[in-house]
Amino acid sequence: MSNALTTAAAGFGTGLSLIVAIGAQNAFVLRQGVRRDAVLAVVGICALSDAALIALGVGGVGAVVVAWPGALTVVGLIGGAFLLCYGALAARRVLRPGTGLRTEGEAVGSRRRAVLTCLAMTWLNPHVYLDTVFLLGSLAADRGALRWTFGLGAALASLCWFTALGFGARLLGRFLARPSAWRVLDGLVAATMIGLGAMLVAGS
Predict the structure, then answer these.
(1) Would you say 118 and 42 are in contact if contact means Cβ atoms under 8 Å apart?
(2) Distance (Å, rounded) from C-alpha 165 to C-alpha 163?
């Protein structure tokens, strides 16, 4: 039981680290939340899409590793390299921050437009597949029989993050409008990703 909880917590932390990094999807969810426009639909699409992609990654990558144990070494090296690059990009954003999030002066759009935009940002973004299908799938495969527990933790992290971002946007809007706030978040992301990447490469 303790191993399952530890694995789920590891999945939650890893999933959260990947999701928190600022990007088009997070900025869109936050904007919708600040404007209170189709928030439930947008949050649901993001969370359910992540859960489906994580399941695909855990099942697909996990099956390959079971059939060919040597794949774990290859996946570990590639995944570790990707994490190190991901962490380096986050560290670069800490040193060269953007302008923060702007939400003022934007009109509330239709629910249909919000849903279609959210679907496009989620399913047409190649980084989403790298993060959920490949990266989380490879990290879950390293957990063996507990890989689905790891995936469940990652999916729960997605649900919690998008729910907090969408429905708590009224409270977070001013805070996240400041570049310094995203520097702190990106700093945490960089440290986590570089640490995970180094562990994957060293253990492969």
Answers:
(1) yes
(2) 5
Contact 200, 87 (CB under 8 A): no
- pLDDT, tens only, 96-128: 766 555 544 444 567 888 898 888 878 876 667
Task: Report the distance separating Cα 24 and Cα 11, nearest Å.
Answer: 23
User: Which two structure tokens, joined as six digits, stand for 91?
Assistant: 């560290």
pTM: 0.68
Cβ(143)–Cβ(149) below 8 Å: yes
Task: Specify the residue for token string 């694995």.
Answer: 7
DSSP string, 112-164: HHHHHHHHHHHHS-HHHIIIIIIIIHHHHHTTGGGHHHHHHHHHHHHHHHHHH
Cβ-based neighbour number of residue 97 at 10 Å: 16
Mutual angle of helices 39-67 and 147-167, in 10-degree steps: 160
